[in-house]
Amino acid sequence: MGSRVAGLTAIVTGAAQGIGRRIAEELGTEGANVVVADIDESSAADTVEEFESAGITATAVQCDVSSMDDTERLVERTVEEYGSLDILVNNAGISRGERFQDITPEEWQQVIDVNLSGVYNCSVQAAPVMADGGDGRIVNISSIAGQNISYEGPANYTASKWGVIGLTKHMAWDLAEYGIRVNALCPGGTLTPLIEDLTTPEERSETREKIPLGRWAAPEDHANATLFLVSDQSSYITGTTLTVDGGLTLGVRHEV
Prior knowledge:
7 strands, 7-stranded parallel sheet, 45% helix, alpha/beta, 9 helices
């Protein structure tokens, strides 16, 4: 067990699986009390059970981040359980639809509500608690799609992730006076169990060949980056965007 965030309390949304789960695990391993927030109550409870068996202090809270009532309850429950809220990782996200011209109004709104408004909903509830404590660390999980486009995903996903970066920068500006730091993390292609289920070995190999570092990202790559952004090692960093993509956004690698 580490100690870089020992004694702090963290909420991680979308934490029952994938990148969010690994972030929550890393924060817990480094000494934080972790609130595993997820729309899937059963999966969140299972995750907490596994964390607790590994010595991590954790609580499961069912939360739909697109609901202001749910996010208010999430923050209230966290403070009731642990007495503070120091870290918020806005990780919950979805993708719906295909080509721009085929996205339905319902699909458009659903993705914006979760991926962008969800960041606002959680943050606007957490910020007053952090301000009262004179300190806070917020990490918003965007995507390399927020710096260009999502070639595999739809336009509403791209728009939401660009929005997350813009919101991050403005939050950092407005909340700095309260000692709250806000940064964004942009993951590249990440090899999660879900991606493995949705792709063939050939497709994964084709993607890997485009990455200058020669491999897909793993969830722990993003967990390590998040830990840095919420630890005192980054105490003078706010309003930035950290890209974790193995160099993919530099361009396609060409063999000489």
